[in-house]
């Protein structure tokens, strides 16, 4: 058993011990032979951050008499648009998006599909069961195989707990509470409806429900292995003990595995969730894993790193094509702009807690991994190393945010891989909930003065819809709550021409056309997040040239600045750098 001491920050002279079965103790591997001919090229699809909330299946768990309905009469349980516009993801439309993507993959003949975490809203039984049924359907109809690994939303905490939301909509467009029976809102009789279908499941229940989709070996697999020498779900994990004592221990599940679904192709699914203890282990209270990632994994799961290195070495020795995936990024995902972000927004802004340190990335690269497909950040990004043999990290975009899409890894016969990302604009039925949202907005308009902008309901396709959602989130959450207040106020009240005048004292006639200069300065914020999220997939209607020119002007500006002028300069510098470093839409990786 491997043992590592972790000093806590909250109990003086206290330690946690993490233990896990060593590789040498592994039971005979699940290895099969024959049946599948080697193909010169194989394509694997990666669908990250689906966040499935099945609006139809979840409605069936409730009394439907006061639920809103689709045009076909089906009752639905949906979150409010008000809630969506304050979240980095859409809650409802993924119901339509996921089926559209699976149909597209089926039409392309793609049979291997990996799900790098956050495949559900919050691990609720209603949504996990609906996902399992959907994946079963596409496996039966098209022979598609699915390989899931956990994200920070599935599970939200390692063990099942009460769940619920306060912002579902009733048929009148009013927000109501739906929660599990053990939730405080249900215990106090203040919830609108209660059902245990809305608990937040832990590892055990999620893995058992999705057991056919990566969490256990299949007769179709050539090979299957876990770090723990067993495929028994109840025995896969780490024993965490307080004060190096066996008297106060918690078994922390870990669903990592490597599988060979087709001859000589290995998919390495890494469970990178780390739920750090709060207080004593005996209290069984844990932080969420959202901000932990690989920085925390290095401390809490060091034996997992050893196993990954062993998998890489054995894959090379046996001539296997290895592609790894997990929910969390293994490398920088902001195109090396961390210093600029910290300078303008602060150390903990922009979800920088989620950024792997250079030391963490170096340690992961030392395992020998060549290609890693990640999620979590709801953006598209590629991080390539300086050498031809280092770790390549690809951030797969979310299906539930702008820019919506998925990634394809094609393994070529020359031991190289092509990574292509597909942006999804066409989604049948994406606007099916618009009539319900209009009722919601009317309720808000009557009762408050905070009704959201209606232009999101004028979107012609799903790509436009997610762009409108992004603008809403930027306005309400990012700029509205997370940016420096003076800067947020300034760009909310001025034009692009005002910004340039403040910085340079005049607007050069060749910097941009009149229409662009008259646009609200908030456009600068919208465009930064568009570039950050989409790389070269972004279309700024020609404003890319403006940001390139501004970058050049800033490089040649030596004037001392302070106050708002300095903040504007820092913002434009960040925007110019992001614009310059847009991630390519296609990458070629050798040695895979």
From TrEMBL:
Molecular function as annotated in GO: hydrolase activity
What the entry lists under Gene3D superfamilies is as follows: 3.60.21.10
- Tell me where on the tree of life, at the top rank, the source sits: Bacteria
Q: Which InterPro entries match?
A: Metallo-depent_PP-like
Matching entries from PROSITE patterns are given as: PROKAR_LIPOPROTEIN
Q: What is this protein called?
A: Uncharacterized protein
Please tell me the species this chain comes from.
Marisediminitalea aggregata
